[in-house]
Amino acid sequence: MVWPRFMCSSPSLFLGFVIFLVSITWQRMATSQSDFEYYNCQNEQGNYTADSTYKANLDHLLSTFTTHRQIDYGFYNLSYGHDREANAIGLCRGDVGPDDCQTCLNNTITLLIKNCPTQIETIGWYDECMFRYSDRSIFGVMEPSPAVFSSRTRNASDPERFTQAARNLLEQLTSEAAAGDSRLKFADGDAEIPNYWPIFGAVQCTPDLSANDCTNCLLGAIAQIRDCCDGKMGGRVGRPSCNIRFDIDPFIQNRPESVPPPLNLPNTTATTPQGNSSGIVVFIVVPLIVVIIAAVALIIISIFLKKRKPRSYSAQNLPEDEVTNVESLQFDFDIIRVATDGFSDENQLGKGGFGAVYKGRLSDGQSIAVKRLFQGSRQGDDEFKNEILLVAKLQHRNLVQLLGFCFKHHERLLIYEFVENSSLEKFLFNPIKREHLDWKTRYNIIDGIVQGLIYLHEDSQLKIIHRDLKACNILLDEEMNAKISDFGTVKLFDHDQTQGHTKRIMGTFGYMAPEYAWNGHFSVKSDVFSFGVLILEIVSGQKNNRAQTNKEVEESLVSLAWRSWGNGNALDIVDPCLRNGSRTEMGRCIHIGLLCVQANLAARPTMSTVLLMLNNGSFSLPTPSQPAFFVNSAASRMRGQSQGHNETQGLNYMSISELYPR
């Protein structure tokens, strides 16, 4: 970023520059209009009735849309219902923060309900967001219409030259946005025109589009500039799947460092914009002086002092404010000892590689689960405090909530919410209790696990890989909703890292992806593999390493499912207890499970795609390739013989999580 040289050489010139900017700021603020707003009820798609299934599904979806899970990247898609499914997409501008995004989406939902009370399909835009819903599948589909246009009323002094520069800028940004991932496809930038105002631009696609569809959508929108904004000093085109915008005013909230217009512009008075149309909002940062000074200071610091490697969090280098947050969660040891009746055997709920878990009851009647780490545990003080700091930040209805901790002498305790119905394992593999797991309940459990993993992989502030997803780590509340538990120790990596490697293999053999079990490579696709094993267990009621087969040779559930699917008899593995329920859904879950356990990790779907597969029956499932056949007795013996004692011992440890800061 280039700053005028006089800002560092002369205080009086700098003050004059600030006064100039403030005057321009107030002039533009005085002429700015209200938030851009547009909606389309799309009457051609028809109406629904007050007692229809679609209305019930839509009401549920809209009432929980922005509260269902956190919006970190401004994109949200959700479906609800099996018959007359309601589908919705929300997209916020790429620079808008989570709180503002949620407010904007809620406002748009309110607007659409008010103005389109019975329409099946609607779409609405604010300056900061877009929201749409329909009874048809709209995920991953590039849709160019209905489109909305808006432009400044004032023409550029050199319309042809200005418009071409704007188009060039937007086309350059298109490739950057299209290269984004499934969380964000957004790019913004600016371009200089000699002796003229700079042009600011931004382009964005819904991130469920492929790179090719995103590119086509944006290029089509850019081509529509001639229909709405040709020669204008600013304009925007909004489509259901993408949007573009250009302007002589900076409108991106997180770019206060944008280069200000040069002072020696010819005919400044004639070219200074006098106002926007009702469709354009000018975002001006009011405390401009503070922003400029802070930006200059930040540049100086970053140049001379900030060339450092990314740090990892440990007990020694936690930020002071985070240490304070951790300490606020601390429980008194004696209170927990009394709550668990002295950690009595009667209150013990289970035991793992790092410690035992006890049920307790606080003096106010609240039930808790206490994880008491073994004194000889390999989990050190740093790892223990990491778990507190990071897991306490996780807030999702399908994750077990960490309430606090206790740290006294050699005692280290983690206090979690108590989940009434214990683990899925105690129901699923119990010949009596599994009768309580009808198909509707199992399908809801599967959906909850998927929602929890999407939060861990994509929507939380930290990118988390669980690495020990299995039936005993899925807890069930009183309504039999799934809650993922047991996050173990954690590590932090660079935000752009997509996979990691470790020599310390920790998890449960049989659920581990082959690339992790053999080579220590892990990624979100490692969790996808574990989920694939788990969904097959839920459908079949069998453990992966104890699948019932007529063959004398021991066979894993994954192997059995693959063989049955290949023979056209996939439903043969369905739990005999499931006498009722949709056989189509059961077969679809088996198909999804086989897609998740493919040996080729690149072929495995993401958890967001899994959610789409589960909730959209019209979504065409690809044919799975051969899974990894390593979970059988022969492979287990080979693994045990090829590894040293210390590494194989790690297979019994509790779960490990890998977190990537964003």
UniProtKB/TrEMBL annotation:
Q: Which UniProt keywords apply?
A: ATP-binding, Glycoprotein, Kinase, Membrane, Nucleotide-binding, Phosphoprotein, Receptor, Repeat, Serine/threonine-protein kinase, Signal, Transferase, Transmembrane, Transmembrane helix
Provide a Gene Ontology MF annotation, just one: ATP binding
PROSITE patterns attached here?
A: GNK2 (PS51473), PROTEIN_KINASE_ATP (PS00107), PROTEIN_KINASE_DOM (PS50011), PROTEIN_KINASE_ST (PS00108)
Indicate the segments forming the Gnk2-homologous domain, all copies.
Answer: 36-138, 144-251
Q: Which residues cross the membrane?
A: 280-305
Q: Which subcellular locations apply to this protein?
A: Membrane
Q: Does the keyword Transcription regulation apply?
A: no
Q: Which InterPro entries match?
A: GNK2, GNK2_sf, Kinase-like_dom_sf, Prot_kinase_dom, Protein_kinase_ATP_BS, Ser-Thr/Tyr_kinase_cat_dom, Ser/Thr_kinase_AS
The residues the record assigns to binding ATP are: K371
Q: What is its main location?
A: membrane
- Keyword Ribonucleoprotein assigned to the entry: answer is no
Specify the signal sequence span.
1-32
What are the Protein kinase domain coordinates in residue numbering? 343-629
Membrane topology designation? Single-pass membrane protein
Q: GO cellular component terms?
A: plasma membrane
For this protein, the record's CDD domains field holds:
Gnk2-like, STKc_IRAK
The Gene Ontology biological process terms listed for this entry are:
response to abscisic acid
Q: Which SMART domains match?
A: S_TKc
What's this protein's name? Receptor-like protein kinase At4g00960
| Species the sequence originates in | Cucurbita maxima
High-level lineage: Eukaryota, Viridiplantae, Streptophyta, Embryophyta, Tracheophyta
**Which gene is annotated as encoding this protein in its UniProt record?**
LOC111495428
